[in-house]
Amino acid sequence: MALAMKVISQVEAQRKILEEAVSTALELASGKSDGAEVAVSKTTGISVSTRYGEVENVEFNSDGALGITVYHQNRKGSASSTDLSPQAIARTVQAALDIARYTSPDPCAGVADKELLAFDAPDLDLFHPAEVSPDEAIELAARAEQAALQADKRITNTEAAVLTATTVSKFLATATACCRVTALRVIHSPAV
Predict the structure, then answer these.
(1) pLDDT band at 6 (very low <50, low <70, confident <90, very high)
(2) What is the value of pTM for the model shown?
(3) What is stated as this protein's family in its record (predicted)?
(4) Which end of the chain is more exposed for a tag (fewer CB within 10 A), N or C?
(5) How far is the C-alpha of 94 from the C-alpha of 2, rounded, in Å?
């Protein structure tokens, strides 16, 4: 239960980071564009691989990404960055603005009207923090590989067994509205 609470705390911290990134991007785009859309995400997790019961690899990941689309005089420019620092966000917004200057006008391009945005999307109940420590992930991967080897005597070799547990948080917003923050915990079954 303590690990599940830690995951929930991480998601809350990620939410604050994502909200700040979106706010920064939209603030930088305002006044320089007719509208903007921002999507930002943060992914954290662990991936473990074992072969013949021995640990081959343990990887921890923590990745972020921000994408912004700006609209100016019916022209659209998009840019993205994996760096969520304020300086990188400023460069990304400027890149999107620069790109918009060189694209062809499209009278249908623009931010969706506020009434078309999904403010009341149903909660699909996808966030289920699992208590998987690195040691437990190693044990589960090794057990999966052993089960595969014992399932049929013709199976004599595996490439490895892999278990991945990932939490993904996403935040979507436009210059006129904040749509949705989602958190998703993905536990991939061991693959052999």
Answers:
(1) low
(2) 0.75
(3) Belongs to the peptidase U62 family.
(4) N
(5) 42
